[in-house]
Amino acid sequence: MGLNTVATYVFWNFHEPEPDKWDFTGDKNLAEYIRIAGEENMMVILRPGPYVCAEWEFGGYPWWLQNIKGMEIRRDNPEFLARTKSYLERLYKEVGSLQCTKGGPIIMVQCENEFGSYVAQRKDIPLEEHQAYNAKIKQQLIDAGFNVPMFTSDGSWLFEGGATPGALPTANGENDIENLKKVVNQYHDGKGPYMVAEFYPGWLSHWAEDFPQISASSIARQTEKYLQNDVSFNVYMVHGGTNFGFSSGANYDKKRDIQPDLTSYDYDAPISEAGWETPKYDSLRNVIKKYVKYPVPAIPAPIATIEIPSIQLDKVMDLLAYAEKQKPVLAEEPLTFEQLNQGYGYVLYTRHFNQPISGTLEIPGLRDYAVVYVDGEKVGVLNRNTKTYSLEIDVPFNSTVQILVENMGRINYGSEIVHNNKGIISPVKIAGKEIQGNWKMYSLPMAEAPDADKLGVANSASATTKLKNMPIVYSGKFTLDKVGDTFIDMADWGKGIIFVNGINIGRYWQVGPQQTLYIPGVWLRKGENKIVVFEQLNLKPQKELRTTKVPVLQELKSELN
């Protein structure tokens, strides 16, 4: 495209999944990624947070921070700052030698991220305390050894809370060149340089909402304005990519208590989710080529795609039965994911009733999505996304209520980020009566694919009829003589996750707008491949899966349970 720098977030929770257990291997090898950027003659801007937002689970924070006594995230709190210090020091060991001051490609490091927004949202905290915290994060980066220029990024009207002395303030989403220079001068001793650290060519997308689109011509015109006025800009995102596994976060507003982000992070970006050029890419490239003094290379050919017409699903497994064979945690009341020392996935909550009870089941503390059963028979769905926190229930004598709860991603932006426990976080009531005692919790983190081959049965008409409306695991194998990128078509399914060769490729949900899931060809193999689908709703029996060469990201359906 003609760009010369890669800006990359660093996700703290990606690298410290458990306290003091670090992982920079394989896909998490940040240093190798930065070295490759350098080999491609690209500079690197590092955005380590510790908060990054990025539509990523919990904004990059490890979920287990919430279990630390006295912890208050994102403020001048000793417990929190002790953990951020540990993270930034460990990060420096990985990438400190790759700074331009040591001959590497890293030219800038960001302090915190969009902190001015948080200051505006948390007026209950004095501005002086906010500013003290912001300065301490910058100092922790310096103390760790980072010695390249530092910067902050916020909306231009939020610099009072977000800027910190000694760091260049940059303005996210700022189209007005005069205003950009005015506010940067105000907070940076009357001098530049001038930069838009996030220039948006597209926008984030949520389940059950329209997929946003921004025209290529408007983005090209704004790019030319920046170039004509010597304004640096970072295209966020130039390539959206994919929220694989449980990495997608969520937003919050009053209409929907949670707005979970799609698995796809295509973002309507110039480079598509699968790495293809788009008309928007061409428009931007044509503008940039007019202004840069270095040669702009040819556009690479798109990665080859394949289509698999039919993947047979020959085994099925009853997930409730599978879960209830595990040893449960017993408690007087439902426990949260965090109390169960579980970060992601699902928890099955069960409660046996010796006496019959009927009326309205209320779970106002549902986080985030639940299917409710009585003795394995589906009663209905509760959904934080639609503010559906109650349903009518009839529990006969000597019966068990089963509530399968899904964490759909922790909130990653705004003041609600401090309220991010998952599972059932408040009392459960039936007919106005709080249900206490004898709760059992079965953890289903789905860190690995359930082994339906070993524990399941043949996918026969009798098996799938029996399991209709029940949570079910399907599995199958398929053989390839060549590999390539592809998209699994899930438009005919309900809600769940998919594992391909043991890798969780993310969530699907019938409501859309995303109806396909991207599978990079590097995760497929010549010869035998294995696929496992955990289908939460199982509205109808399934026998096969098919893939397509083209993604479907804009097919919004009406709400279906």
From TrEMBL:
Secretion signal span: none
Keyword Hydrolase among record annotations: yes
InterPro entries linked: B-gal_1-like, BetaGal1-like_ABD1, BetaGal_gal-bd, Galactose-bd-like_sf, GH, Gly_Hdrlase_35_cat, Glyco_hydro_35_CS, Glycoside_Hdrlase_35
Domain Beta-galactosidase galactose-binding: 471-529
Assigned keywords, A-Z: Glycosidase, Hydrolase
A GO MF term: beta-galactosidase activity
Pfam entry (one): Glyco_hydro_35
Chain ranges of the Beta-galactosidase 1-like first all-beta domain: 334-444
Catalytic site: 114 (proton donor), 198 (nucleophile)
Record family assignment: Belongs to the glycosyl hydrolase 35 family.
Record-given protein name: Beta-galactosidase
Source species of the chain: Bacteroides reticulotermitis JCM 10512
Organism placement in taxonomy: Bacteria, Pseudomonadati, Bacteroidota, Bacteroidia, Bacteroidales
